[in-house]
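SAMPLE LOG
Freezer: B-3
Tube label: C17
Construct: single chain, 80 aa
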Amino acid sequence: MFPAKFQTIIFAFIMSGFMAFLMSAILTFINLGWFDGFVAAWLRAYLYAHVCAFPLVFVFAPLSRRLTAKLVKPAELSGN
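STRUCTURE (predicted):
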């Protein structure tokens, strides 16, 4: 287990990994179709995508949180 202070970094790594993995597969297939060597091309694209996506999560996650907070009505507290 990692200390709690690493939560943001670990979250960014995992989230960017999932997104890069799936998006690189989809875009590799859309651009090249299924062919011999597809998996190798996909994994190569994934590595490039993850290297880019990981730092971008740090930039866009806080912005996304602020925009979401502006778009979503706060929950009402019940008077029970």
